[in-house]
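User: Need the bound-state model for tryptophan:
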Amino acid sequence: MIHQEKPTIFSGVQPSGNLHLGNYLGAISRWANLQDKNQCIFCVVDYHAITIKQDPLELKKNIIETAKIYLASGIDPKKSIIFQQSQVSEHTELAWILNCVSARMSDLNKMTQYKDKAEGNENVSVGLFDYPVLMASDILLYNTDLVPTGEDQKQHVELSRTLAKRFNSQYKELFRIPEPLIERSGARIMGLDDAFKKMSKSAKSEFNYIGLLDSPEQARKKIMKAVTDTGSEIKYDKENKPAISNLLTIYSLLSKKTIKELEVDYKGRGYGDFKKDLAEVVINFLSDFQKRYNKISDKEVVSVLLKGKKKAKNIAEKKLSEVKKSLGVL
Ligand code: AMP
Ligand code: TRP
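Assistant: Bound-state model below.
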């Protein structure tokens, strides 16, 4: 086993457009704080995005946009490796190997994200089914200790543990066993139009999510239209008041006020007042975020991704060649 000084962190987001507050609060915003005490690697996972149909021009634009969002969220290329998955071919090579020697149909048949996305339709790509094996390769190539994501990725990280253990016991102890890192608050931001479904970029209505690049008018409209619960009290109660609890979570994370403080502030006041203030909090956040975002040029992003690719490739190459040796193909 290689012993590194700092724990290694790996995470990624798909460049499938419309990155939203759920992505930010559940994942990306947490990453910046991890950079000082860990070796962090953040990937734009474009080969995951193509598991569903993508327009080539849009995809190209979204790859740059996603990396820019990383930078605007405080991910510092001097501290962390930022790169594009398809540029390091070791990811797909390891995925094939794990497909053959570690992953079982029965493992993948259990994955709830696949079931949600395929909705029982068999006419979906094989890649969509195999998606978690590529994700395991991303994680395992870098001796990852911790994988910070939202709640929905927990099952996939657990699968990567299973695949690593199986490989280690069958061949050689080459893979470190990663742990999921999921925060208690914000790990599952719900849709603004339906508090029982997670906020999602593939939602049918744009009133489901606040995009990180939404205009102030769009954001205000979406907050004011957000569903609420019966009653009128502003109180955190996930079971009986799922919609208000979700809005309180967003308010708290963006304003750095605790939910308790917010409940006191809004005692005796109605949903209308609460939503108006929340809209202002969201707009302020978006305006600061977008100021940082707009200062970053495409050229700068391309240069960051290129440097990141070299560093990532260096690590990935070594791991893959050990894997190949142990399999007998090198
Ligand atoms: P994706 O957009 O599926 O590539 O997800 C990127 C990251 O955002 C992953 O770590 C997800 O777990 C996280 N994420 C996506 N949707 C949400 C949500 N509604 N709430 C919290 N985290 C989320
Ligand atoms: N599957 C993740 C998602 O949809 C994205 C992802 C791909 C990822 N590879 C990863 C996240 C490796 C963490 C680590 O959100």
